[in-house]
Q: What sequence folds into this?
């Protein structure tokens, strides 16, 4: 009897050991990969990244590569890179109905980890959570996610200007001619135009440039502590010139919306980088200070509820939001993949999709984006103009047309402006809507015609 029990106990030990070695251990290893033999499944340039922090619950990771930090998710031995982040920050949305007691429960978690919260947009209850280091990144994120007074928590992703520098020595603006700007101007000048403010969320604007100095109004700097919207990169100045470079002033270029004003909102620093928190603040500032159109020639991978909430705030206040699709020849960047925005891809001189232009079902239209001449930061003589390429250059074509539409028919809502841009576009690619060209090439002439016809229709009705 004793030997039978002994035999049973020995077998139970062996069975337990077998289960641990061949069933549980492989699962643990898969769920919590170590720092060796890791593969970044969707981007080979990150295959040597180092894991800084990992979360065994969600399999989330913070990775470091050459001084930059990225958010990833582990799948067995593969890691999906979800985008560059600020490693000790994330964005949280508190439930608007939460009272003082609820706020105290959130503050208790923040105090526990020596973290602090800054209001990004009080109207939609978005907050930037800042940690003293990244050691407790996932712990505090998990606790806040489990707090019933918090709607969501997400990383503070890094965004970048979406342009490709190119040869600066061309001599004409082909894009404006292709989309029928001259005819649109003729029609728009037949009515008393309203002055439209276009907020350029970018690297700033050189407001002393001869083609921009009389069309730029005061803005705001959210990118650094310099409290200046001056552009030291050139990207924002180039974008602003496409939208509103002075027309018929005997110098330089002609912008698309020659009667609009540019509000520079600096959300990208002097290296062309920014983050979601800056953009959230920039969108609210532009909305609250009278912008009717917001241009965002920027983006990053992934998706963001915080950016969606900020964009909803703008749209609900009558602001049309225009965003670049991105330059990776892949999925559309965020915030270009947000609902309600007009997402813009790029074409070349032959009306072919630019090789770099992102695509997908969220694409609305395309516009000229390769070899686009516009204003530059030097601002004097030939060196004050240059050629850039990218969806960053295509986006202000659409923002400019949106501004002209609003100038001839100020009562149009963002949804109605978007509908006019869709209906007036020149179909390219496969017949009808397609993921490479959206509804087609932006057509300024037809768009203004439709905007004017909406005025006549409303008067008749």
A:
């Amino acid at each position: 009897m004793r030997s039978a029990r002994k035999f049973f106990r020995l077998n139970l030990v062996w069975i337990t050991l077998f289960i641990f070695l061949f069933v549980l251990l492989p699962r643990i290893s898969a769920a919590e990969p170590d720092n060796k033999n890791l593969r970044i499944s969707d981007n080979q340039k990150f295959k040597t990244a180092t894991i800084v922090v990992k979360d065994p619950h969600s399999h989330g990771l913070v990775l470091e590569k050459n001084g930059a930090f990225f958010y990833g998710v582990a799948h067995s031995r593969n890691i999906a890179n979800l985008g560059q982040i600020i490693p000790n920050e994330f964005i949280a949305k508190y439930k608007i109905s939460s009272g003082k007691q609820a706020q105290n429960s959130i503050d208790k978690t923040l105090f526990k980890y020596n973290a602090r919260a800054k209001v990004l947009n009080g109207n939609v209850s978005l907050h930037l959570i800042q940690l003293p280091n990244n050691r407790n990144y996932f712990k505090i994120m998990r606790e806040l996610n489990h707090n019933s007074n918090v709607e969501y928590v997400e990383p503070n992703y890094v965004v970048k200007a979406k342009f490709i520098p190119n040869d600066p020595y061309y001599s004409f603006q082909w894009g404006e001619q292709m989309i029928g700007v001259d005819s649109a101007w003729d029609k728009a000048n037949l009515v008393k135009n309203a002055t439209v403010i276009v907020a350029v969320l970018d690297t700033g604007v050189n407001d002393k440039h001869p083609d921009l100095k009389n069309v730029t109004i005061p803005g705001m700097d959210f990118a650094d502590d310099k409290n200046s919207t001056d552009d030291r990169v050139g990207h924002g100045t180039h974008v602003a010139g496409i939208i509103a470079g002075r027309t018929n002033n005997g110098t330089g270029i002609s912008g698309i919306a020659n009667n609009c004003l540019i509000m520079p909102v600096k959300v990208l620093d002097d290296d062309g980088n920014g983050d979601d928190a800056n953009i959230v603040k920039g969108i609210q500032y532009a909305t609250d200070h009278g912008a009717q159109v917001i241009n965002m020639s920027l983006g990053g991978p992934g998706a963001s509820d915080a950016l969606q909430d900020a964009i909803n705030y703008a749209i609900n206040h009558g602001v049309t939001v225009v965003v670049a699709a991105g330059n990776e020849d892949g999925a559309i960047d965020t915030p270009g993949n947000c609902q309600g925005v007009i997402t813009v891809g790029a074409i070349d001189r032959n009306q072919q999709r630019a090789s770099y232009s992102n695509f997908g079902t969220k694409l609305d239209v395309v516009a000229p984006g390769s070899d686009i001449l516009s204003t530059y930061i030097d601002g004097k003589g030939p060196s004050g103009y240059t050629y850039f390429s990218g969806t960053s250059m295509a986006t202000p074509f659409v923002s400019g047309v949106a501004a002209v539409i609003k100038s001839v028919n100020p009562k149009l809502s963002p949804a109605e402006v978007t509908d006019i841009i869709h209906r007036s576009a020149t179909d390219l690619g496969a017949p009808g809507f397609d993921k490479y060209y959206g509804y087609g090439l932006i057509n300024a002439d037809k768009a203004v015609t439709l905007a004017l016809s909406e005025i006549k229709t409303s008067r008749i009705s």
Notes: Residues 4-8, 19-43, 165-171 have pLDDT under 50 and may be disordered. The CA atoms of residues 251 and 324 lie 28 Å apart. The chain has two domains: 63-158, 162-460. The longest strand covers residues 78-94.
